[in-house]
């Protein structure tokens, strides 16, 4: 066997142990395929957790990065630059927003959104209007503020005390929200589809009612579109399909197609509260990231491509339903474009990782959304033949897990 200079064992020696990656160590990707150190080929249904929106090494993204690398890499925000201004023009032209704050990740975008919501409320209503309401099972990032707003206690444990003035209610339950929102509420934060929480789409009537309650109490509505944005659900942003316009929107993951970048979008009158010196980032608006993101938007914001997302969604769902009909393994299949969750039957609750490992052994990369749900966030342009081949591998993996159970 080939000897490699680094391996999974190297990880344990030199990397902080907050991750636990498998032995597979990918070294090359193309389209929806990956190859590891030993030359094994894998079909990628994970997409870097909804990041590799155009697959691996898309030629136009490679070209954009190389072209910008020959011009200018970094300035900091002591200066502005052409790519960041051009990218901001594209985002504001295509969305409800007037102005954009750029950063490096979804967590940073959400951090900026939550700070802006409190600053805007302070400027317009006084210090008493500072409370933020979010939803159970939500995920908004890993900074101390964003894990506090996120609705999963496991991500906050051991990091207390966390920021105060944050409460959580059940998702898709408007009466629960109605019971806690008040004139002290500065913002309500929601994902149009809860990703980490199990791939749970917002009911459109619920989303509209949230908007109405925010208006009634002069609270801002923040949409976390870090996972749903940039074509993932079949429109450029998911709020378009819900028919509900937020006051602030956060976006990252797919925005850079694999290059780290995040952004917070909002209206001019709200943005004005982040006056000079009130917030900042050294790398945000980096010319390299913005050049790549411009190319991503040029490709993804296309009617034919977005219609293709919906068609591929239907193919994924049909094949998952066929697998479940044969193996009785899924309780429910939920999807919004190519954000797909297959919830295991109750017998298999808590054991999603077993199916993930079995799939990986057969050359298929999947995700989970909690311990009960298999999650798929592939490239938006994944070929149909890769979908079918990957699903055949998934069925083999499922059959193997069920066989072990049967034989035990």
UniProtKB/TrEMBL annotation:
<dbReference type="GO" id="GO:0006526">
    <property type="term" value="P:L-arginine biosynthetic process"/>
</dbReference>
<keyword id="KW-0055">Arginine biosynthesis</keyword>
<protein>
    <recommendedName>
        <fullName>Acetylornithine aminotransferase</fullName>
        <ecNumber>2.6.1.11</ecNumber>
    </recommendedName>
</protein>
<keyword id="KW-0963">Cytoplasm</keyword>
<feature type="binding site">
    <location>
        <position position="142"/>
    </location>
    <ligand>
        <name>N(2)-acetyl-L-ornithine</name>
    </ligand>
</feature>
<keyword id="KW-0663">Pyridoxal phosphate</keyword>
<dbReference type="InterPro" id="IPR015424">
    <property type="entry name" value="PyrdxlP-dep_Trfase"/>
</dbReference>
<feature type="binding site">
    <location>
        <begin position="106"/>
        <end position="107"/>
    </location>
    <ligand>
        <name>pyridoxal 5'-phosphate</name>
    </ligand>
</feature>
<dbReference type="InterPro" id="IPR050103">
    <property type="entry name" value="Class-III_PLP-dep_AT"/>
</dbReference>
<feature type="binding site">
    <location>
        <begin position="224"/>
        <end position="227"/>
    </location>
    <ligand>
        <name>pyridoxal 5'-phosphate</name>
    </ligand>
</feature>
<comment type="subunit">
    <text>Homodimer.</text>
</comment>
<dbReference type="GO" id="GO:0003992">
    <property type="term" value="F:N2-acetyl-L-ornithine:2-oxoglutarate 5-aminotransferase activity"/>
</dbReference>
<dbReference type="InterPro" id="IPR004636">
    <property type="entry name" value="AcOrn/SuccOrn_fam"/>
</dbReference>
<dbReference type="GO" id="GO:0042802">
    <property type="term" value="F:identical protein binding"/>
</dbReference>
<dbReference type="InterPro" id="IPR017652">
    <property type="entry name" value="Ac/SucOrn_transaminase_bac"/>
</dbReference>
<dbReference type="Pfam" id="PF00202">
    <property type="entry name" value="Aminotran_3"/>
</dbReference>
<comment type="pathway">
    <text>Amino-acid biosynthesis; L-arginine biosynthesis; N(2)-acetyl-L-ornithine from L-glutamate: step 4/4.</text>
</comment>
<comment type="similarity">
    <text>Belongs to the class-III pyridoxal-phosphate-dependent aminotransferase family. ArgD subfamily.</text>
</comment>
<keyword id="KW-0028">Amino-acid biosynthesis</keyword>
<feature type="binding site">
    <location>
        <position position="282"/>
    </location>
    <ligand>
        <name>pyridoxal 5'-phosphate</name>
    </ligand>
</feature>
<dbReference type="InterPro" id="IPR049704">
    <property type="entry name" value="Aminotrans_3_PPA_site"/>
</dbReference>
<dbReference type="InterPro" id="IPR015421">
    <property type="entry name" value="PyrdxlP-dep_Trfase_major"/>
</dbReference>
<keyword id="KW-0032">Aminotransferase</keyword>
<feature type="binding site">
    <location>
        <position position="139"/>
    </location>
    <ligand>
        <name>pyridoxal 5'-phosphate</name>
    </ligand>
</feature>
<keyword id="KW-0808">Transferase</keyword>
<feature type="binding site">
    <location>
        <position position="281"/>
    </location>
    <ligand>
        <name>N(2)-acetyl-L-ornithine</name>
    </ligand>
</feature>
<dbReference type="GO" id="GO:0030170">
    <property type="term" value="F:pyridoxal phosphate binding"/>
</dbReference>
<dbReference type="InterPro" id="IPR005814">
    <property type="entry name" value="Aminotrans_3"/>
</dbReference>
<feature type="modified residue" description="N6-(pyridoxal phosphate)lysine">
    <location>
        <position position="253"/>
    </location>
</feature>
<dbReference type="InterPro" id="IPR015422">
    <property type="entry name" value="PyrdxlP-dep_Trfase_small"/>
</dbReference>
<dbReference type="GO" id="GO:0005737">
    <property type="term" value="C:cytoplasm"/>
</dbReference>
